[in-house]
């Protein structure tokens, strides 16, 4: 009789948060910002009901389905991590004024995804986070998998 193989699974959970922001780069003039970001450069900002989803991938042993619990990860624990990494810093905030990370980083959905990735990376077991998916609207979605480009 051969030993039973370990089963791997991916786990996903989503949250919805509301936040406002203004797309504006300090490196550009007011005219350049208006041309690049259009109505999203409104000095008073604008808001979104973002939907954030994170997906865990079976890259390490901890994402094998535990034979005793039958789980990849306790969902209550995952919910707590998402509360700390996403909801507390972002929900009902002005990203540009209330979140220090965005003081020098343009608060695009791409950078929101990076922010969420970095926060979750600190809380989850090493190597388990596969991707962060942020819906700015039902039509605009950003997926970030932790990739970095070489800058010359």
TrEMBL record:
It is an enzyme of class 4 (lyase). The keyword Zinc applies. GO terms for cellular component: mitochondrion. Coiled coil: none annotated. Pfam families: PTPS. Its EC number is 4.2.3.12. GO terms for molecular function: 6-pyruvoyltetrahydropterin synthase activity; metal ion binding. GO terms for biological process: tetrahydrobiopterin biosynthetic process. Pathway: Cofactor biosynthesis; tetrahydrobiopterin biosynthesis; tetrahydrobiopterin from 7,8-dihydroneopterin triphosphate: step 1/3. InterPro entries: 6-PTP_synth/QueD (IPR007115), 6-PTP_synth/QueD_sf (IPR038418), PTPS_Cys_AS (IPR022470), PTPS_His_AS (IPR022469). Its cofactor is Zn(2+). Keywords: Lyase, Metal-binding, Tetrahydrobiopterin biosynthesis, Zinc. Involved in the biosynthesis of tetrahydrobiopterin, an essential cofactor of aromatic amino acid hydroxylases. Catalyzes the transformation of 7,8-dihydroneopterin triphosphate into 6-pyruvoyl tetrahydropterin. Belongs to the PTPS family. This is 6-pyruvoyl tetrahydrobiopterin synthase.
């Amino acid at each position: 009789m051969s030993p039973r193989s370990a089963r791997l699974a991916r786990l996903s959970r989503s949250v919805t948060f509301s936040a406002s922001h203004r797309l504006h780069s300090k490196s550009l003039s007011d005219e350049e910002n208006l041309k690049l970001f259009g109505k999203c450069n409104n000095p008073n900002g604008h808001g979104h009901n973002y939907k954030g989803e994170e997906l865990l991938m079976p890259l390490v042993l901890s994402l094998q389905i535990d034979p005793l619990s039958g789980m990849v990860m306790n969902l209550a624990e995952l919910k707590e991590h998402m509360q700390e990494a996403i909801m507390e810093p972002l929900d009902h905030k002005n990203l540009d004024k209330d979140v220090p990370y965005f003081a020098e980083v343009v608060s695009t959905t791409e950078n929101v995804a990076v922010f969420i990735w970095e926060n979750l990376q600190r809380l989850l077991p090493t190597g388990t986070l596969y991707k962060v998916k942020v819906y700015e609207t039902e039509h605009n979605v950003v997926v970030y998998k932790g990739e970095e480009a070489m800058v010359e």
